[in-house]
Write a structure and sequence with these properties.
single chain; 174 residues; alpha/beta; Rossmann fold; 5-stranded parallel sheet; two-stranded antiparallel sheet
Length: 174
């Protein structure tokens, strides 16, 4: 019988100057068991990158001190293969210019679009053997229903907790 294990989540460096946006994105990423390290600026992100490696860097575009595209250029100069995803409210503007990132997502961000961008931006690990697959007759529909209710619960949490104006604008369009 074939055996496989589900790969653990990705290690992600999340860079955004808005704490509320970082919290919301971290919550969405944690649904899929990703490990998220937060940075409030490009300079803080560079400090994290000097001592750690990440499967993906997600950065906002418009931040004080250093724009997201400048952060991406610096990262790519040091580590050309580092996958970088930029999130921005300026998607139309940035889509017309060459950016040093692997993908750009427009705000507001849905869980589905985040998952798709993450899957396209990061290499998929090989399936490892060692754990048996579920027996025939396993009810996968129950898992889908549970995931759907989890997303609904998270949407409700985001609607009730409004730490910043930026998050309010983002939530409104979820």
């Amino acid at each position: 019988m074939s055996t496989a294990t589900r790969s653990p989540g990705k290690s992600i460096l999340l860079v955004d100057d808005d704490q509320g946006v970082r919290q919301a994105l971290k919550l969405l990423l944690s649904i899929d068991r990703h490990t998220v390290t937060e940075a409030a600026s490009g300079l803080e992100a560079m400090q994290h990158l000097s001592g750690s490696t990440y499967d993906l860097v997600i950065t906002d575009y418009l931040m004080p001190e250093m724009l997201g595209d400048e952060l991406a250029r610096r990262i790519k100069k040091r580590t050309p293969a580092q996958p970088i995803l930029m999130v921005t409210a300026y998607l139309e503007k940035l889509a017309q210019t060459r950016q040093p990132v692997d993908a750009i997502l427009g705000k507001p961000i849905s869980l589905d679009s985040l998952r798709q961008a993450l899957a396209r931006s990061t290499p998929q690990p090989a399936i490892r053997t060692g754990t048996k697959l579920p027996a025939r007759g396993f009810n996968f529909a129950g898992l889908a229903n549970r995931a759907s209710s989890t997303t609904s619960i998270l949407d409700e949490i985001l609607r009730r907790k409004r730490p910043t104006r930026a998050l309010q604008d983002w939530e409104t369009n979820l």
